[in-house]
Amino acid sequence: MCRDKAGRRKYTPAKRDGREARIKKQLQQVELSPSSYDTAWVAMVPLPGSPGAPCFPQCVEWILLNQQDDGSWGVNEFGSSANKDILSSTLACVLALKKWNVGHEHIRRGLHFIGRNFPIVMDEKIAAPIGFNVIFPGMLRQAITMGLQFPVRQTDIDVILHLWEMEVKRFDGHKSCGREAYMAYVAEGLGNLLDWNEVMKFQRKNGSLFNSPSTTAAALIHNYDDKALGYLNLLVSKFGSAVPTVYPLNIHCQLSMVDLLEKIGISHHFSTEVKGILDMTYSFWLQRDEEIMLDVATCAMAFRLLRMNGYNVSSDELSHIAEASAFHDSLQGYLNDTKSILELYRASKVTLSEDELILDNLGSWSGSLLTQKLFSDGFPRISTYAEVEYALNFPFSATLERLEHKRNIEHFNARDSHMMNTEYLPCRVNQELLSLAVEDFTFLNLFTGMNSNILTENKLDQLQFARQKLTYCYLSAAATIFPPELSDARMSWAKNAVLTTVVDDFFDIGGSKEELENLIALVEKWDEHHKDDFFSEQVKIVFCALYTTVNQLGSMASAVQNRCVRNHLIETWLQLLRSMMTEAEWQISQYVPTVEEYMTNGVVSFALGPIVLPALYFVGEKISECVVKDQEHSELFRLMSTCGRLLNDIQGFEREGSEGKLNSVSLLVLHSGGSMSVEGARKAIQKTIVASRRDLLRLVLKEDVVVPRACKDLFWKMCKILHLFYFQTDGFSSPKEMASAVDAVINEPLKLSS
What we know:
By secondary structure, the protein is an all-alpha fold.
């Protein structure tokens, strides 16, 4: 960033190209860090037919060349002191060298490192790799059997060995598929206690066990298998003398990066790479590839990302984990893995049909498990806790992109890693992703402010009846239509949002019947109106604001579309005014409409037409008159407005009732003949909202249709705004309810953790 002559920050793309190139490279070709732990286990595999020689001597050589100065093995990416992962890696490397009787000095230094840091092994508060309480003591037993002596008190060693015995006894309890999977996964620590033929049931098509080099090597040491050996041969030929923690991991890593790019708002910089990854994932999905289907988190994430990006994926492919019992029978289920449960919960929210019972089941039990974790004393207050809390408290349908991006940037964990048998970093460019996201967010903030105040420009601030909702209207525009190239769409959205609020108040409380009829007559005349036609100064102010704004936006939109669209904008306003007049007449005459009459009129009178429809002309797509008149266009509008109308009715029922107004809640009760309570009416309406939202999302994501995707997205974004505004109360009518959201998007800078 630099500054212009006025002292304002000005964007400069310094260093950006190199950074984006590195991120693109990582997206296209995942780089996996070498794992000392897994390399050590591969090094322990004997040559077939020659048990006294290593099958992979290059791995033994790598161990000899890569001991740290302090005697440890394992690279600590973040420079902190010893941890359980490094201790496991060091012990495994010591075992490998001892097995082949090489590196005596390396062994001595490794043993002393373990001895100095043995208290870490015994500290249950320190994070540990999966199965540490089985694998580390198991390796310790093996080391003692081999004659290795640790500079550690015998009582401390006895405590750790007792811990192993307790874990093994626990396995003798209730049998389950999940327990069997876990025992196979931590095979390095169980050795001859396992039935290796049973363990090999978990072998995958690529020859591995769980795509884990260490687990596969442990199995191969005890039970020769051609496919397992072929898997390790492939690894060593691909990665050289050091292997990664997990392989293959491409799909999981790439999907995780795509997800992260979307969450922090920079995926548009890598649209080609993202499409390539999703196309490849979709191909594997259709083949039911093991790399996707056998990993719960990857399967759930693939489903969510593919569906939200318009790919035709069926929730039936999640049937193998639809029930909680099926999940608990998996490795991740046995481990009660929070990230896997969270991914399943997120996937369950992308429902497009009432028939998707699989997603309903997923959402029910995964939500319950996450809630239990949230209120569990043992659940650590770390980034995962914050993710779970946010997912449960803020539904997918009630989030705004800009708010999401800001929150995710501020909570970004550049050191995020996954704990398997040993720790691994799934993405090595996290810091550069954060840097680009911060730069992008700050740059875009320069363009999301509105350069004019429609209230003062059009004397609307002189109308005593009008609610002052300028910042809320700016919020809805800035939080959803933030790219610089969409500035006209953002301005159109915000200005019309202000105008509809004023007009709504005019029909509700500000205008007499004569004034309302006069305003409609003026709009019907439009260019033919005369200065003497105004019934009152109020009517004049409202009409002139409409006339000026619609003409301005109509001229701009017509230039963009290369055809005249002003008449469509006028007609949209006229439909709104007539529907509002219908409601005013109902109230004056005390007429009680049917629910169907109310909703037919209400989807128009809710006033989303003048906000959303003109903005469609400014999102970079050519919209013909045929598109505007197409049934799909009308259905998108109907579903969006139905959600808004009913959300408003549920939250505004008491307030509107006190004002003598009817809405869908009161009408359902009135027309039920006493068979339905207010609470029952609310529940029925909530079901309609869910169905309308689901149908809207299905229509938005549907490919090969009339309305362009960029236009359909605006209907969905407005739906999400409405869910946020009316999430727990009538946030639009409350003077303070949305203040924090306004500040977060418009006023407050990013708050990055140090």
